[in-house]
Automatic annotation (TrEMBL):
BP GO annotations: actin filament severing; actin polymerization or depolymerization; barbed-end actin filament capping
Organism: Cryptotermes secundus
Pfam families in UniProt: Gelsolin (PF00626), VHP (PF02209)
InterPro entries linked: ADF-H/Gelsolin-like_dom_sf (IPR029006), Gelsolin-like_dom (IPR007123), Villin/Gelsolin (IPR007122), Villin_headpiece (IPR003128), Villin_headpiece_dom_sf (IPR036886)
Keywords for this protein: Actin capping, Actin-binding, Repeat
Listed GO CC annotations: actin cytoskeleton; cytoplasm
Taxonomic placement: Eukaryota, Metazoa, Ecdysozoa, Arthropoda, Hexapoda
A single GO molecular function term of this UniProt record: actin filament binding
Protein name: HP domain-containing protein
Amino acid sequence: MPARLFQCSNATGVFKAEEIMNFTQNDLVSEDVMMLDAHDSIFIWIGKDSNKDERDKAVQMVMEYLATDPSNRDDNTTILKVKQGYEPPTFTGFFGVWDTSLWNDNKSFEDVRHELEGSNPVLELDPQLIDGARNFSDFPKYPLEKLQASADDLPEDVDKTRRELHLSEKDFMTAFKMDHGQFSMLPVWKQHNLKKAARLY
């Protein structure tokens, strides 16, 4: 099954994703977020000039894309976030000829990785974790009641699409009757239903 590339943008004021046919590296737009569906995994490519709203909504869109795909995709499909200029071979391989000088001043992926002191710029995302944070405890915490407020009344550092990440362990258990590790293993549709029932959606 060939890979599919989607451009995710809110340039028109409304977030939308459009598929790009017969894509090449030049179709990766620095101002936007792109989604590459490689079937066994999905890459979220972060353009260096994209905005936070596009990045957050792209992650949400990937989750909905997987949940509604008529081919019954595996809920555990790997989701990888790739930053512009730090593309690994597993990503660039879908684009045929890849020009490393286009954004990186002729630096290879390996060069860039060494500059980052061995840290891997490709972040594998647990579907519940946003922007590469790896631990539930990394997110700022707020009381359950505060997180059930309308989107306009939420604290600025709360991810409106992943409110449950900002619960304390105790409140998470109260809201979902399970810990975050158990919750993250549930199918996406079941997570959504539980979040709606807990008024965290």
